[in-house]
Amino acid sequence: MTQSTVLDNPKYSYLVKKQPAFFRVWKKLFYYYTKFVFLWYTPLKVYGRENIPDTSFIYSCNHNSHMDVALLAASVNKSFNYFGMLAAKDYWFDNRFKRFFMRIIMNLIPIDRKINDVRKFSIDDTITLCNAFMAFDNRNLIMFPEGTRGNPGEMRPFKTGGAIFAIKLNVPILPALVFGSHQAWPKDKIFMRPTPIHIHILDPIYPEQFIQGNSSGEFDEDIIKQAAQKMTTQLENTIREKGKIFYG
């Protein structure tokens, strides 16, 4: 008997194959709505599109606003069908209504928060779902290295989670500097303001610059952590250096 895996769970089927037309259409409509907003209300200018990899990637930027996910999608001219985000399993996946509602606008991939240093849903299962999701139509992940929205115009220290995923998935991180979203829709504000926004897409960072596997292609966990720290340092330095031009 073949042992079932997380990929066989129907709850996550939308991550591993083509989604039903209902959800694809709604994500596309929401994408066009945001494009309209970014054209007329908060005019968006994008620089560096030539840096976008031909393969799947993890898109990472400074995070100051509710609108950053939509901005990143618009900056590479891809609808929300082509992006996934990690989301707390205990909050978003244990309620049928939440699962249905979020599938209309986003592809959420479950990750379990540690309780007493233990995850009920393993990180390997999360990696497996990410890998399957990205393998279909070269889809991508959005991960904010600060972990949460910072104060307007400020950047928190970067966490290594995105780099660890990049190494384990063997995909590049695509850094970007977002300027203006902290003024257009700042934290704790309900409505957007008509403010110009700029996104600078920077050179991709490839995991093989920091780590090499053994003869079987496997990585030691300690080596992964060390490489992820170096990769995160380069990511943070890259975005902060660009940010000095705008934030000072």
Would you kindly provide a written description of the structure presented here, covering whatever features stand out?
This protein is an alpha/beta fold. It has one domain: Glycerol-3-phosphate (1)-acyltransferase (3-Layer(aba) Sandwich). Helix content is 40%, strand content 14%. The protein is built from 9 helices and 7 strands. The chain has a 7-stranded mixed β-sheet with strand order 1-7-6-2-5-3-4, with helices on both faces. Helix 2 (21-40) crosses helix 3 and helix 7 (161-169) crosses helix 9. The protein is globular and about 55 Å long. The termini are far apart.
Quick overview:
The chain is 40% helix and 14% strand. It has a single domain, classed as Glycerol-3-phosphate (1)-acyltransferase. It is an alpha/beta fold and 248 residues long.
